[in-house]
Design a protein that fits this description.
Largest sheet: 8 strands, parallel, barrel
Structural class: alpha/beta
Oligomer: single chain
CATH topology: TIM Barrel
CATH superfamily: Glycosidases
CATH architecture: Alpha-Beta Barrel
CATH class: Alpha Beta
Radius of gyration: 21 Å
Distance between the termini: 6 Å
Order of helices and strands: HEHEHHEHEHEHEHEEEHHHEHE
Number of strands: 11
Length: 426
């Protein structure tokens, strides 16, 4: 199901996500033949950016880790470009993932070169067809023996193929469970391993559910002084409850939503964050230069020793130069409907009233505390211990996020654009 295709559903979810305190969502499964203008506009009004996967789990819509040379073809790239074409004109499109966990213990040695090829093709399409640059990155499985090698292969400098270098690197990490610590979770190791990164790094998925309900004690660590010099926050997995038990809310068959304890626990952790730290600039990554690609960077991985990338399939150069046919929105539009029509229940099963989207200015991104709407009959607002019983929001914080994104600068915690996020997979 395409999570960004129904405006009424998107308004409902945007209100709950804005209220939660997030400012970025990751969306995995998209149908480029549908119109996403209304939903993109709603999330833009909420101050929430979108990081989008260009692949899907459907047949022939992603790289095959066992034989990438067979799946890397014109039909596959046509669909990839259609996703890019569909979303590149929305000013809250923060970035694209060119792959998700393609590299693992079962992938063949040539897979990293094909991921760089897809990254190159997407970035070249954006350069040719978009009015602004949009970052393109990769989301990696947290496989310790391959993680640094994957990062090095995808982010090192190739003088003859500069557009194939990723702009950001995501890690799908579930190592912090329950009341773990910075050390027992291995977060200290990750900070040490990536301390000299030249690009933004963040958790593209996190939120271990070995202990339930989740208490998210990793949040203050991720946004604290030990990690913010290296990591740019992360994306909690996931919004809706599925059989794997990672959801923050239950999406009921009649369109209503039941908030789960995980939602309240996460909101409480976000509300305690030092917002000034999230907004502070960090020049560490942007002050360094990526090392030149060499085999010593990938020692012990089993990856191909060659940094020569696959040639584009026949016809792809023409697609890049001329564009693909399909949906091509002119950009986000004004949002006037701000009150969701669906019923939302708090963790006690009581109906929340007064839920409302707080429409932010074009250069404002959402932060915890911007939306405090939602009151239960008992007179206290659900979650995070707030005593407010109003349906209003605090004054939003102006961050200049849209300006930085429009300039193509996805910087480490410069404006917190990745600082608080949520994976949205419906």
């Amino acid at each position: 199901m395409d999570a960004l295709s129904d405006a009424n559903v998107c308004l409902r979810d945007a209100v709950l996500l804005q209220r939660l305190g997030v400012n970025a969502i990751r969306v995995y499964n998209l149908d480029p033949d549908l119109d996403h203008t209304a939903c993109a506009s709603i999330f833009n009004a909420a101050g929430i950016y979108m990081i989008l996967d260009v692949n899907s789990p459907l047949p022939n819509q992603s790289l095959d880790r066992a034989s990438p040379w067979n799946s890397y073809n014109s039909a596959y790239l046509t669909r990839v470009f259609k996703v890019v074409e569909d979303f590149m004109h929305f000013n809250n499109t923060l970035g694209f993932f060119s792959g998700n966990e393609v590299i693992n213990e079962d992938s063949v040695a040539q897979v990293p070169s094909y991921i760089r090829a897809v990254t190159r093709d997407v970035k070249d399409y954006i350069s040719a067809q978009s009015k602004r640059s949009i970052p393109v990155g990769y989301s990696a499985a947290d496989v310790s023996s391959l993680l640094i090698g994957s990062f090095n292969y995808l982010s090192c400098g190739l003088s003859n193929d500069t557009s194939s270098k990723i702009d950001f690197f995501g890690i799908n990490s579930y190592s912090w469970c329950g009341n773990a610590t910075f050390q027992t979770s291995g977060y200290d190791v990750l900070v040490d391993q990536f301390g000299n990164t030249t690009i933004p790094i963040f958790f593209s998925e996190y939120g271990c559910n070995a202990v339930t309900p989740r208490i998210f004690t990793e949040v203050p660590a991720l946004y604290g002084p030990e990690m913010t010099p290296v990591f740019s926050g992360g994306l909690i997995y996931e919004y809706s409850e599925e059989p794997n038990n990672y959801g923050l809310v239950n999406l009921n068959d009649n369109g209503s939503v039941s908030i789960l304890q995980d939602y309240d626990n996460l909101r409480g952790q976000y509300d305690k964050l030092d917002v000034s730290l999230l907004e502070s600039a960090n020049s560490t990554a942007t002050s360094l230069q990526a090392p030149a690609c060499s085999t010593d960077l990938i020692a012990g991985t089993g990856f191909t020793d060659s940094f020569a990338l696959p040639a584009r399939p026949d016809g792809v150069d023409s697609l890049i130069q001329n564009g693909v046919s399909g949906n091509s929105s002119s950009g986000t539009t004004a949002v006037t409907q701000t009150v969701p029509s669906q019923t939302v229940y708090d963790v006690n099963g009581e109906t929340l009233t007064g839920l409302k989207l707080v429409v932010l200015a074009w250069d404002e991104s959402n932060l915890p505390g911007n939306n405090t709407s939602g009151t239960a009959p008992s007179g206290s607002s659900s979650s995070s211990g707030s005593s407010s019983a109003t349906a209003s929001a605090s004054s939003p914080t102006k961050t200049g996020a849209a300006v930085r994104v429009a300039d193509g600068k996805l910087q480490s915690l410069a404006i917190g654009a990745l600082a608080v996020g949520l994976a949205l997979q419906l």
